[in-house]
Amino acid sequence: GAGVSQSPSNKVTEKGKDVELRCDPISGHTALYWYRQSLGQGLEFLIYFQGNSAPDKSGLPSDRFSAERTGGSVSTLTIQRTQQEDSAVYLCASSPPSWDSGDNEQFFGPGTRLTVL
Amino acid sequence: TQLLEQSPQFLSIQEGENLTVYCNSSSVFSSLQWYRQEPGEGPVLLVTVVTGGEVKKLKRLTFQFGDARKDSSLHITAAQPGDTGLYLCAGLRAGSYQLTFGKGTKLSVIP
Q1: What is the pLDDT of residues B20-78, one digit of tens each?
Q2: Per the omega criterion (within 30 degrees of 0), is the bond before A8 cis?
Q3: Shortest Cα distance from B9 to chain A (angstroms)?
């Protein structure tokens, strides 16, 4: 079946502009995650959704970052008034609803490369 | 503070050589995963280890979870150019949904 898709694949924007990044998880996956991957860094957790609810927003770097999920499916990550330090690859992942003795397999999309000039 | 330390950060070897990548932490994890990421793509899960001391083999890749569930290693035998990529370890704490990722090991296998 189809994997996780993200759009756009690349986004170049000017400092101060707002951007929206989209994630389409695998059908039937209830959990959805956003990560940020900067050069030389590992994956930085941003936010987690279970269904349409976000029980943990602790990873969002500032109040310029927000995310929503509708219909238990598509999610949008919005960055307002972008700064140069926001430049990174933003990855989305989803997980199926069944949990298997501590396992938490996450299926990742290809990411959106954001460049803020 | 990086919760999961991976070493080495970079590794460049000749085709046919063996290598080991390490993932260490002072924290205990209920499970640990290894992912491989190629340029322009998202990470892809290779394996999940759950039991302390567990060893899993995936063709030429051998994964081990430490007895205390604080560390893990990935050993590749007779590396091939197709093994080139970024290898990431990720730990899951008991009762948590959040994976903690290491910074990764960038492997280059030269033909």
Answers
A1: 999 999 999 999 999 999 988 999 999 999 999 999 999 999 999 999 999 999 999 99
A2: yes
A3: 9
